Amino acid sequence: YVELSISGASKELAFEILRQKKEKEETIKVKILKANKGGLITEISGVPAFLPVSQLSKEHYPIVEGGETTKILRELQKFIGKELEVKILDLSEKENQIILSEKVKELDRIKEILKNYKMGDIVEGKITGVTDFGAFMKFTKEGLSLEPIEGLIHISELDWKIIKDPTKVVKVGEKLKAKIIEIQNGRVSLSLKTLKKP
């Protein structure tokens, strides 16, 4: 009985420490122990912790053609034994599980970089992706040695005329100048048309 109450108390203490880390939004370093099709498995203070695929940072997200689960698992297995920086997204003492996120950490970093930008800034960058709703552009501001970040040029901001196919206006790898029209919660909206004559 004494042993049981000690292990129960230490588990309670572990969760209390983890709750504090979550509230303070502390970054924690974890070593990945296993992987499954849904994400990566580790543990913090002896408590099982799960990092879902959807919560992986952009640089670690497995890009697999067709989204084949066996290929995704193969990509995720490459993280076993590696250390990742994460934050606690959710935790449940009842279920004895912690849900982690690597994205939260990334968003904090982006918000920090964005303090150097304001609406109306003209930025220079490269088109990184084109979708049916617009284009993504990685940009920096001239004279600032900052890490490039990505913004979205919505289809309605590509040109003054109505665009049906964004690939007709921009191409991946193309270097362009754009104007920041909105910065909200770590997301940047850019415009090409405001730099063109209507």
Major sheet details: 6 strands, mixed
* Spatial shape: elongated
* Share of helix, binned: 10-25%
Sequence of strands across the biggest β-sheet: 1-5-6-4-3-2
Number of helices: 3
Describe this structure in words.
With 198 residues, the protein is an alpha+beta fold. Helix content is 22%, strand content 36%. It has three helices and eleven strands. The protein has a six-stranded mixed sheet with strand order 1-5-6-4-3-2. A five-stranded mixed beta barrel has the order 7-8-9-11-10. A hairpin with a 4-residue loop joins strand 5 and strand 6. The longest helix is centred in the first third of the chain and has 22 residues, at 2-23. 20% of the residues are buried. The model is unreliable at 1-6 (pLDDT under 50).
Short summary of the structure?
This protein has 198 residues and is α+β, with helices and mostly antiparallel strands. It has helices at 2-23, 69-77, 103-114; strands at 28-31, 34-36, 39-44, 47-52, 83-92, 97-101, 122-131, 134-140, 149-154, 175-184, 187-191.
